[in-house]
Amino acid sequence: PKKGQDENIRMAPVSWDEALDQVAGRLSQIKDENGPQSIAFMGSSKCSNEENYLFQKIARGLIGTNNIDNGGFISGQFLSLLLDQKTGGGCRPIPLSDLEKAEVVLVVGADPNHSLPVVSYYLKRAAKKGTPLIVVDPRKTELVSFASAWLRIKPQSDLELINALAALLHEKNAHDAAFIDRYAEGFSIFAYGLASLDVEKVSRVSGLEMQRLNETAELLKGKRIAFVIGHGVLQQRYGIHTMGAIVNLSLMTGSLGTE
């Protein structure tokens, strides 16, 4: 642990005892001056059940506040709201077991081996059974060794990549016309935007060669896609636009709402 030593917030190492004493003392002071509800606890979805239980026990039992949340829940709410806006509330994330039934899996900005190991287990099992696995991530995660394709994009270029894949699929006439006619609205406007997209510019922005983009589009062509979205997308400044592009890609390929 480190502690600010002066008004310039320069940090210097301190012992665990000193750090914990200061945090406990400051929490007690805030509680005495402003009441327990003035304190909020922000946990982590990466903690174990036991760790999160102890965390909420400190909040409720020692401090006396019910203001408890975690980053994973906030990201999940964000995703659910976007799905509701796009589908009218008729769609939710699929069960993990469905990943093994997918025709192809696109993993964007996620490292489930560290964040949610159970998801990583299902993905690896699906890959071993022959399901094509496409990993989109600037980092070489453990999942890359199980992938059919690793798209090592430049950071913050997820949105451009997803739109480029949609444009290439549309160019190949690989959209699900029957699904779109039945369930989607405004596709003609969306398609006009795809037709005017400069995919070669996306190639430069993302750092991926055109051949790589075309190969990926061929992997997706004619298949129902299962998407695994991680904090690399959900916590971006413009993550909502990337998520919107992912939902659009899911709709145009008939992947949304299917097993």
TrEMBL record:
The entry's cellular-component GO terms read: membrane
Alphabetically list the UniProt keywords.
Iron, Iron-sulfur, Metal-binding
**GO BP term, pick one:** respiratory electron transport chain
Keyword Nucleus tagged: no
Named from the GO MF annotations, one term is: iron-sulfur cluster binding
Q: Which InterPro entries match?
A: Mopterin_OxRdtase (IPR006656), Prok_molybdopt-oxidoreductase (IPR050123)
The answer to whether UniProt assigns keyword Cell division to this entry is no
One Pfam family this sequence matches: Molybdopterin
Instruction: Tell me which residues make up the Molybdopterin oxidoreductase domain.
Output: 12-258
Could you tell me what this protein is called? Answer: Molybdopterin oxidoreductase domain-containing protein
Question: Could you tell me which species this protein originates from?
Answer: marine sediment metagenome
